[in-house]
Fold each of these.
Amino acid sequence: MDIQNLESLISVVDCGSIAGAAKKANISATAVSLRIRKMEKHLGCTLFNRDAHSIKPSEKLLAVIPRIRCIVEHAHQLSNDLNADTLIGELRIGAISTALTGLVPAALEQLSSSAPGLKLTITPGDSKLLYDKLVNQELDAAILVAPPFKTEKSLRMVTLRSEPLCLLAPAAVTQDEAHSMLATGPYIRYAARSWGGLITQRYLDDLSLAPCVTCDLDALEAISLLVSQGQGVSLVPQWPSLLQQSPNAHILTNDPKYCRDIVLAHHAGHHRASAIKLLASVLMT
């Protein structure tokens, strides 16, 4: 029984149409239809009820679709286990937004030539979400802000970059002007609940600065846009593409206490250790 045929069955059920399943798999609708008919012939029953404008799973298919999902999942896991010590197969990683735009594209380009058989499945999210997914074994590795607490003993953290604290303002400023603007102007706060936001809040607390907060955002690119539109000033880490988006960004301090460390987190002794090691190396180049 061809796993690709089973994948197409699942995809048609999930997408609700052959066209949707074909688009998801990047193949033709004719190819998806052929796979379905092959499965119906092999199993000797009708798997979908068709009319002129729709296709719906039959009761028989709905009854066994959970088992089909398990078969496909186990097949993929078997492939990954067989290729565990190689640079082939799927590697599930998570990445925060600034890593997706600043670190991941160049890494993917390098991996396409150095490990063409390695397929990265990327999950976006904030650091806390990705950390939880990593702990729950839903990810093989995650690019996130260094956790502000003691992590599980099984986890390892590879520091990819350390980002100094910057002031974003509509125009270039000096150090003294920066502190004055923080004390008096409208302040767009990098959400204090986020792991990176905790660092900016620490800086303000240590200098006894209490800006007038107009909004909280855990979206650095959006903060940069609001500042460029004259909506206020903000304290942010110097993420990879910051200076391209905000050329007036002013580094306030390089003190490690106020830097946002970006790490690649993974479990010690992971079965995809070779792939994770290669990923770490290309992310740091």
Amino acid sequence: MQPDPISLDHQGHRTLIKWHRARRKASDAEFTPTRILDAMRLGASVEVDLVVHADKGFAILHDLELDHGTTGSGLVCETSAETLRRLFLRGNDGEPIADRVMLLEDLCDLLAANPAHRDALLQLDYKEDLSRLSPAVIASFAAAVSKVAHAMILSGGDSTAVASLAAATPGLRTGYDPTYVGVLDDLQSREDFSRFIAAALKTAPEAAMIYLDYELILAADAAGADLIGAVHDDNRRVDAWTIRSINSATLAKIRRLLDLRVDQITTDDPEGLLFALAEGAA
């Protein structure tokens, strides 16, 4: 029997396998409660996304528009909680599935009713910025998350937004993603990459996990800069995101990330990743 896709060991270092958008395997739909509970029961690392809706709470969705991932249409920020709960998610083929859109409080209630494995970690990835966080939105977040904050980590690209939500939610760990569109156009030399990671660590001093595009890590490596090593030197951990599919090209990149001692790899196909590496080692 194939082991559950939770982690793998390489040269004495353990790397977690994170279930991106709560997918255990490539054929899974995004953000289904079954997969989230599966991951939390097993002690896996799993990620969901957060966007703010019209009633000052959060929906478990990636896009700011409803059209692609749900049976709804329009902007999430203009849609009420009641309407969101009536919408169905769409599968990878675009067809509606049986699972409905969850709100953050729905997810937290589900987790409270189904206690997680002590090693499980649910990443809440906030997809917007500080401008969307009114006092009412922050209070809504804290009210939902506080009872299960010990099993979660909050991340995002706006470190001030993440810090504001975390400050209202005792016990919640945080992470920071300094990656931005076009970052590889700006970083060319070893010195460029070194300055980039130093600035990221300074920007988010409380972040336990630094989330980096895996291509950024590998580009830095080719330029002679060890981004993972720099983060480890500051007693933090690195997540490399996102391996979309498992093939010969991505496997070579995954193996290099493992050589660099990455702490977590985000993928849309955790089962496929673990199987392919095990098959290659056989």
